[in-house]
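I am still getting used to backbone structure tokens and would like to learn alongside you. To get us started, please write out a protein record for me. Start from the sequence, derive the backbone structure tokens from it, and show both lines together. Once you have written the record down, we can walk along the chain together:
***
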Amino acid sequence: MTAPLLEIEDLSAGYGEVPVLSQIKLRVHKGEIVTLVGSNGAGKTTLLRAVSRLLSSSGTLRFDGRDLARLAPEQVFGLGLVQVPEGRQLFDRMSVEDNLRMGAYRRGDKVKVAESFERVFQLFPRLGERRAQAAGTLSGGEQQMVAIARALMAAPTLLAVDEMSLGLAPVVVDQLLGILSEIRKQGVTVLLVEQDVFAAFSVADRGYVMETGRIVREGAVPDLEKDPEVRKAYLGVV
């Protein structure tokens, strides 16, 4: 098997003297949708912050063959590891189009940026209809679309999506999951971090289960769905 696109080995991290993550091992290969699931407070967002170098850590972090340990967050972003943050974090008073343009701020090729606009409006036709509307006036689902589209404007190699389903109606979540599958078809690898295990498992190839800062289960999604502990704790099935 080829080397992972993202490789995490023996990763530990925390806030000050408070440890959160312990000896995390996780791999994502090109072309996959991999999910990291767990309850609120398990440490999932902390892991993404460590990977993006917003938080210092120990252990091995490699992305596309590059050691991330000494890189700044903007350098990690420049390598193509782009995060869709929990809570969307949009510029509410700015238009949809201007929010999307912020995702492409490091890209100098106007022609390719224009092509990216065309692609995201094909994925999200509603955003094309609302491109001049202030982002803060959109529905929650539409705001999540803007957050994903903004990340795509950065031309990511790996898209890390944090709690995409949070606060959204199931029908909207299903629509967004379908879009993640389409994004993967377009050549973008996806790491989906989710509390909604049903949603995550419906679209992912492989999964990792996190509890109190540790990975306690991993494997192909069909195997995790059959695991008695996963079924009992996360799927409500005995």
DSSP finds ten helices and ten strands in the chain. The chain has a mean pLDDT of 94. The radius of gyration is 17 Å. The chain has two domains: 1-80+159-238, 90-155.
